[in-house]
Amino acid sequence: MGVLEKKIAVLPGDGIGPEVCNEAVKVLKAVAEKYNHTFRFSYALMGACAIDETGSPLPPETLEACQEADAVLLGAIGDPKYDQNPHAKVRPEQGLLGLRKALGLYANLRPVVAYEKLLEHSPLKPERIAGTDILIFRELTGGTYFGEKGRTADTAFDTCTYSREEVARVAHLAFKAAASRHGILTLVDKANVLETSRLWREVVQEIAKQYPKVEVAYLFVDNAAMQLILNPRQFDVILTENMFGDILSDEASVIGGSIGLLPSASIGDGVALFEPIHGSFPQAKGKGIANPMAAILSAAMLLDYLNLAEEAKCVREVVQKAINSNILTQELNKKSPYTTEQVGSFIAYTILEGVEVAPHKNNIEIGLSTII
Ligand SMILES: NC(=O)c1ccc[n+]([C@@H]2O[C@H](COP(=O)([O-])OP(=O)(O)OC[C@H]3O[C@@H](n4cnc5c(N)ncnc54)[C@H](O)[C@@H]3O)[C@@H](O)[C@H]2O)c1
Ligand SMILES: CC(C)[C@H](C(=O)O)[C@@H](O)C(=O)O
Ligand SMILES: [Mg+2]
């Protein structure tokens, strides 16, 4: 038996979800082998694939598998047949939202960094984005996503509701993170218009008194959207509500050069869930062009959550090596010959061997055969 034994529920999902998830699992297997741990993976259905198979986007056995696990790894969910049909009553996204709610995952952490080597790949000016290191805290189980909804033939509504407690619990996590980083927390809201945003400000101002070393800044979301790409280095920790966090984090991914690089951790009352911030990118399904790094970096966040800090650091360092060696998928380098699988294998193999393999296609294929 290994040093540590952990159960990881894997929900590959739809579109490119299974492809990027495979690479993250491959990396976790390499970590287990290198550090002599035992990771037991249990696979379950969620999203469109679960609807096809069972009629439900979140079958009870999937929820059980997650509740029994030490951590959950998710690829992505979503399918054009639902995206293009506003009348569909059952939708893949209900599975994801239902799971977040059922597991009490109220805080979604989305780190955004500008990798030195990728500055030239961002559409933004390198001198503006170099050195960016932001941690977004997105509230994940409240707001418009979960408020009362309704529909008549000619009207529709989605209500946004937040309680003091819902704001306070995620705010405390964000303040603690800011205190351990650069000491700046920016609350992003729309307090000039929304009642919920005014509650957020009130609660955050109250909680700020408990964190005297953290400087608090306030920005309206429209201005924040602009500041994020004009001067991202002004941000350390961003705290915001559910929908603003969803939108701002996709926008922030442009700083790093690709949404295929952005991982996330969803934490709360019990087991935590780790997933890339991107979706199922259905146009890329089966083509081997999806970047697996967001999923692999989500696996690194999972390792941190399991208190395997050294292992998590090793994964991040090897991802950095892959970037430095130009082992990239095509959205970051048009001429790159590497597929999703080869990028994942390079990372897994380098972790296992402890040395950087020459960035050569054959080595990557040899690496693949030693891990699987
Ligand atoms: N957490 C999730 O599972 C999640 C998140 C977002 C969207 N979705 C779902 O995914 C489906 C598609 O949504 P969408 O097209 O708006 O968003 P998306 O994130 O799937 O894709 C948007 C664009 O981002 C890029 N991209 C995404 N992932 C990439 C990767 N790994 N490597 C390289 N480039 C990547 C592509 O250019 C793509 O066109 C929808 O059904 C949506 O509901 C799911
Ligand atoms: C698929 C969708 C429900 C989801 C969200 O809006 O939370 C996604 O965009 C995300 O960012 O994880
Ligand atoms: Mg999103």
Automatic annotation (TrEMBL):
InterPro entries for the chain: IsoCit/isopropylmalate_DH_CS (IPR019818), IsoPropMal-DH-like_dom (IPR024084), Isopropylmalate_DH (IPR004429)
Where in or outside the cell it occurs: the entry states:
Cytoplasm
Residue ranges constituting the Isopropylmalate dehydrogenase-like domain according to the UniProt record: 7-347
Positions bound to Mg(2+): 222, 246, 250
The pathway where this protein functions is: Amino-acid biosynthesis; L-leucine biosynthesis; L-leucine from 3-methyl-2-oxobutanoate: step 3/4
Query: In chain numbering, where does the site feature Important for catalysis fall?
Result: 145, 190
Record-stated family: Belongs to the isocitrate and isopropylmalate dehydrogenases family. LeuB type 1 subfamily.
In its UniProt entry, what is this protein called? 3-isopropylmalate dehydrogenase
Report the gene name: leuB
